[in-house]
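Q: I have 184 residues here and want to know how they pack in 3D. Can you give me a structure?
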Amino acid sequence: MSKPTMPLEMHAQNAKPASPTNTWLPKREQLAQHPWLRPWAPRLLDAQLWRFEHEAVARGVAVGFLWAFLIPAAQIIAAAVHCVWWRAHIPTAAAITMVTNPFTIGFWLWLAYQIGSTVTGVSAALPAGMENMSWDLLKAYGGPIMVGMGLLAAGSAVAGYVLVKAGWMLREAWVVKMGRNKSE
């Protein structure tokens, strides 16, 4: 006896909607097939780099914050390479690097200057004259900004790692407590 078949319309109604991230993000296997990434495919396909586990996610947050503040461009690539080395969650690291973007970079540069000038004791005054303005600005503000960005990178990486670990432990404790309350 043959199984009754479901009409095609019912399959479409019963199908789960696709996650928005599943529709536009490439799959691990697609990344591994990319010509530039093919030499690193065995390392990129490691499940720990893609699995949502507390240690890998905490490392991914740390790596993402580190590279978000250390370099102005290609942060996602640097973070992904670092994730392979540190066994960190690549999607989390890539998402965290977005904290520095064209809309927020002005704030981060201002904050880095404030931190850097406080630490180094150097306070730059606006250079006089308009000739070679960009070089004068770089000489005046570059040092404190670089020190501040380095401190932001290290501080946010450590803080992000600790906060993710603490949050995960609190969540686990809450889940265990709620489980005990349900069983009583």
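Q: Anything worth noting?
A: The chain has one domain: 33-183. Residues 6-16 have pLDDT under 50 and may be disordered.
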